[in-house]
Structures are given as C-alpha cells and as structure tokens.
Design goal:
GO biological process, one term: regulation of DNA-templated transcription
Radius of gyration: 20 Å
Helix content: 40-55%
Strand order of the largest sheet: 4-5-7-6
Pfam family, one: HTH_11
Distance between the termini: 53 Å
Largest sheet: 4 strands, antiparallel
CATH class of the largest domain: Alpha Beta
Number of strands: 7
Order of helices and strands: HEHHEEHHHEEHHHEE
Organism: Pelagicoccus mobilis
CATH architecture of the largest domain: 2-Layer Sandwich
Protein name: Transcriptional regulator
Strand content: 15-25%
C-alpha cells in the first residue's frame, strides 16, 4: 500500500515503484512488456497493476491487436503524480502570487528573467567541456535530470536531437505562471550555442504526458 509520501511499504514496494517509473518514462505499456523489462511473469505484473489500480494510481484500456483477445494497456492516472515530487509546490505558488500582487507584473517578469539568467549561467558551466551538439544535449539532459525532470536525450537517423522530460518538478508553479515555461526555450538555445534551433513539440501543460524538445542546427 502507498504511504503519504508516495512510497510503498511491504515486500513489493520496490517492484511497484519500478512499474510507476516505467509508465512515467515510457508511457502506456502492456503487462507483457513490463514483465519482459523486469524479468518476471505477466501474471505477477497483473497482480501488481491490480493493486496499483485499486488505489487509483493506474488505469487500463483494452485494445485490439490483430486476431485474438484485446491487449490491456496500463497508464498512470493524474493521482499517480503524487509519487513524483513537485518541488516546494505551496511555497513557490505563494511566493509567485505575493510578488505579482505586491510588486506587480513587471517585478514578476524581472524575477523570471533573473532566474533564466541564473539557469543559463549554471547550465553554461555544465556544458563548458562539451564540444559537439550531441555532447551538449547529453550534458543538458543530465543537468535537468539532477533537478528532477527525469530527462533523457536521443538522436534520430537524420541527426535531429530530442530532449525529453518525463516529469516536471515545478509543474504547479509553471501552470500558475506561464512565464516559467516561456523562458525555457531561450535558455536552452542560449546554452546549446549559436546556430541551434530548439522547438517544444510536446508540453505537459497542454495535456501531453511529457515535455519534449526538438533540437537541430539551424539551416
């Protein structure tokens, strides 16, 4: 059973936490896919998923795949987000609200600009030793993961990179203050260097499961 802090107790806690993280980073999966990933039986996975479903962390959908019985695919519910921390949620929301109400919109914009400058400085230091765009994107993904974004970098056959963030540790603040997300593209483009184009192609605040950025050299 889950505890208030999002963890699980009992002998199965590690497996169930792994299943939650798998669905968080990979999206909808069948019991067979998860079983192969963890090296256990499909029956064992189904038992775990039924327990997670009973407390509202996952839901499922049957889908036809050719002949035979439909396959059940599992996915996280909104309630499951409690297992993935939203850093200092209430404090950040209060501070943003106070800045805007007491000091005004202009002061809030200045605060967000200063935060973006600080991010560029910190990321710039992390990427200082990276030469190629591939190395830079990889370093940026690592830095973002350390901040709680569960980020990963991939490259397609045509040389285009994708930075994927499977979690947003400041999602509530970003929802309340759209300026936080608005400045991310400029931060990424700045630290990745001139001649680099960054485009957000998936966005959690628009209903997507994750945030994803398409990164390529400008033509």
């Amino acid at each position: 059973m889950p505890l208030k802090n999002g963890s699980y107790k009992g002998p199965n806690w590690a497996t169930r936490r792994s299943l939650l993280e798998m669905l968080k980073t990979r999206g909808e999966l069948s019991s067979q896919q998860m079983a192969e990933e963890l090296g256990v039986s499909s029956m064992a996975i189904r038992q775990h998923m039924q327990e997670l479903e009973s407390v509202g962390d996952v839901s499922s959908e049957d889908r036809a795949q050719g002949k035979g019985r439909p396959t059940k695919f599992w996915f996280l519910t909104t309630k499951a987000q409690r297992h993935f921390p939203d850093r200092h949620r209430d404090l950040i929301l209060d501070l943003l609200g106070n800045v805007k109400s007491v000091l005004g919109e202009e002061a809030l914009d200045k605060l967000l600009d200063e935060r973006a400058e600080e991010q560029m400085s910190q990321y710039g230091k992390r990427l200082a030793g990276a030469g190629s765009l591939e190395e830079k994107v990889g370093c940026l993904a690592k830095a973002r993961s350390e901040e709680g974004y569960m980020a990963e970098a991939t490259q397609s056959e045509d040389g285009v990179f994708e930075l994927v963030e499977n979690h947003c540790p400041i999602c509530a603040a970003a929802d309340a203050c759209k300026g936080l997300c608005a400045r991310e593209l400029s931060v990424f483009e700045n630290v990745l260097g001139p001649g680099c184009k960054v485009e957000r192609v998936e966005h959690m605040l628009s209903g997507a499961r994750r945030c994803a950025y398409r990164i390529e050299k400008s033509k």
